[in-house]
């Protein structure tokens, strides 16, 4: 996952192999404010302790060093903490400056916030152990209750800043993780949307082909016959078939548009064709193929009262529709038989058409129909085959066979 530049600006990388060595503007302002504040306290004669080994202006040396390490709090937090600890120890040998102590707490906080994950885990435990050891040691040495205050001060300048750094770092990491998850979710949603659009386009292509190809094929065949034969009756019959298929094609297109819109103007869902309309489909094929010597027969061996799931019913209808269209395009004169057989487990569709060299007008095929039929069957986890086979009488036929599992079949009431 690629982090956005915006997130990098608000959440600087920690533990990076190539950190920027240029001091951050905020760090420079903290260093300058701490240095000027310490100098002002020294000028006013305000100190944290007295009677030390190095009196006077020596207090400014640890102050300057601590201000310098503030410049490294973000770019080199480990180095800043080590040098800052030495500066704090040196400050104890002078009259002491409150500004030095305050800047050390910020360096401790920054070491946890901007340091490596290992340092962020180790520093709070280390400062906690040091606080406990200092408290126990001074109580045992001084043997007065006031020695507990030394432990409290130690916790205030080490353990508490480190613990605060851990809390802030955890919240920052949680926010970054949430942002990455949101980006990943958005990416997955976009991928799902793209796949859904592609699947819908494929489905639309299959439906367009199955709905329109049958009628356009009949129109093409009969218009070719009308143009090639100079016979008034043949021309009138061909024009009648062309008009009938044009009207049916428009109706199919309106049905498809209704399906895409989900609901028609009356508010009802547009109905998809089912096997109940199979008689009309075969009868239409008889009309379209009569002039070419093609005959069509229906052999429905299904049991009574078996209700098919809608996807199975629609797929079977479309497979038969496309097979009849292919027969009108390519079959030689003879009988094309549509066979249906099924049970509660599966529905078997078989379309057998005469195969050979066909005389007269033909419509070239693109192979999209076979691809669409195969895709329909595969989507339903069925089996599909299509191709020339040898019939029982030794002749050649073109067989289309699809077996569709009826996983949701049930007996109608």
Describe the structure.
The chain contains eleven helices and seven strands. By secondary structure, the chain is α+β, with helices and mostly antiparallel strands. The protein has two domains: 174 residues, no CATH class; 141 residues, Heat Shock Protein 90 (2-Layer Sandwich). The strands form two sheets. Strands 1-3-4-6-5 form a five-stranded mixed β-sheet, covered by helices on one side. A two-stranded antiparallel ribbon has the order 2-7. Helix 3 packs antiparallel against helix 4, helix 6 runs antiparallel to helix 7 and helix 7 packs antiparallel against helix 8. The two termini are 55 Å apart.
Keywords:
rod-shaped, 61% helix, alpha+beta, five-stranded mixed sheet, disordered C terminus, 11 helices, Heat Shock Protein 90, single chain, 413 residues, 2 domains, two-stranded antiparallel sheet
Compact overview of the structure:
The protein contains 11 helices and 7 strands.
Question: What is the N-to-C succession of helices and strands?
Answer: HHHHHHHHHEEHEEHEEE
Strand content of the residues, in percent? 5-15%
What's the domain count?
A: 2
Provide the helix percentage.
Answer: 55-70%
**What is the oligomer described by this structure?**
single chain
- Alpha plus pi helix count: 11
Anisotropy-based shape: rod-shaped
- Round the Cα radius of gyration to an integer and report it: 43 Å
The structure class reads alpha+beta
Report the span from N to C terminus.
55 Å
How are the strands of the biggest sheet laid out side by side?
A: 1-3-4-6-5
Low-pLDDT stretches? 1-19, 262-270, 408-413
């Amino acid at each position: 996952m690629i982090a956005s530049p915006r997130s990098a600006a608000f959440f600087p990388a920690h533990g990076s192999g190539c950190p920027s060595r240029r001091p951050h503007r905020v760090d420079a302002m903290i260093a300058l404010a701490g240095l000027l504040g310490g100098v002002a306290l020294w000028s006013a004669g305000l100190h944290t302790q007295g009677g030390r080994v190095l009196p006077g202006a020596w207090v400014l040396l640890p102050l300057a060093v601590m201000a310098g390490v503030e410049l490294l709090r973000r770019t080199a937090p480990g180095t800043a903490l080590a040098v800052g600890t030495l500066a704090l120890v040196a400050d104890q040998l002078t009259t002491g400056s409150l500004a030095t102590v305050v800047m050390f707490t910020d360096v401790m906080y920054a070491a946890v916030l901007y340091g490596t994950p290992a340092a962020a885990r180790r520093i709070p435990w280390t400062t906690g152990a040091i606080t406990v050891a200092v408290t126990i040691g001074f109580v045992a040495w001084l043997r007065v209750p006031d020695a507990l205050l030394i432990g409290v001060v130690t916790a205030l300048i080490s353990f508490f800043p480190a613990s605060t750094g851990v809390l802030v770092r955890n919240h920052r990491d949680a926010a970054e993780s949430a942002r990455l998850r949101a980006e990943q979710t958005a990416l997955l949603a976009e991928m799902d949307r793209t796949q859904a659009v592609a699947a819908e386009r494929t489905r639309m292509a299959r439906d367009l082909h199955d709905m329109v190809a049958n009628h356009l094929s009949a129109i093409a065949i009969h218009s070719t016959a009308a143009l090639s034969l100079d016979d008034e009756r043949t021309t009138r019959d061909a024009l009648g078939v062309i008009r009938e298929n044009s009207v049916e094609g428009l109706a199919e297109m309106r049905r498809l548009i209704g399906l895409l819109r989900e609901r028609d103007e009356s508010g009802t869902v547009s109905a998809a064709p089912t096997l109940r309309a199979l008689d009309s489909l075969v009868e239409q094929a008889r009309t379209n193929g009569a002039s070419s010597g093609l005959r069509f027969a229906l052999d429905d061996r299904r049991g009574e009262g078996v209700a098919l799931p809608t996807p199975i019913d629609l797929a079977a209808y479309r497979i038969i529709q496309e097979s009849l269209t292919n027969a009108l395009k390519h079959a030689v004169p003879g009988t094309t038989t549509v066979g249906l057989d099924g049970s509660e487990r599966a529905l078997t569709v078989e379309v057998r058409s005469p195969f050979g060299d066909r005389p007269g007008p033909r419509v070239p095929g693109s192979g999209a129909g076979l691809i669409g039929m195969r895709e329909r069957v595969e989507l339903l986890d069925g089996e599909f085959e299509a191709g020339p086979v040898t019939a029982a009488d030794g002749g050649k036929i073109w067989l289309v066979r699809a077996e569709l599992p009826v996983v949701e079949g049930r007996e109608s009431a």
